[in-house]
Predict the structure.
Amino acid sequence: MTERSFTRARTDDRALIHAVVHRYAHTARDKMDFADMLALFTTDAVLVLPDGTPIPPSELGKVVRDGEAAYIRHHITTVDICFTGPTEAQVDTFFFAITDEAAPDHWGVWRDTFRKQADTSWLIRERAIVVEGSAPSGWFHRTYVAQD
């Protein structure tokens, strides 16, 4: 059973999850700070790339496939949190990205499973990057669509 928990009881949990989502968006920019991103994931986390390839977060550099955009910004539009238990939450974060190649460049949703840690922080246990669309002239299209 999932719980939306819009009550005061989960206010801190919601705030902590939102902080991780926003930190990820901040670090997923030009010359990405992969070390900072890694701190947002559990040690056993899995990241599923847009092409379906699962990797450990320590290999986040594979996202750019040696063709990183000179400029990228991720903008978050909606964060939907469903608690599936006292220490787990399913989180859908809708985003769009702007690069030096297209605005918007690509858009979609991060489908996450968050886990509450012993210190009460929340970290990403699993993230699937689902890209729902991209500009034909953009970085994502050049990196993922045109090469496939």
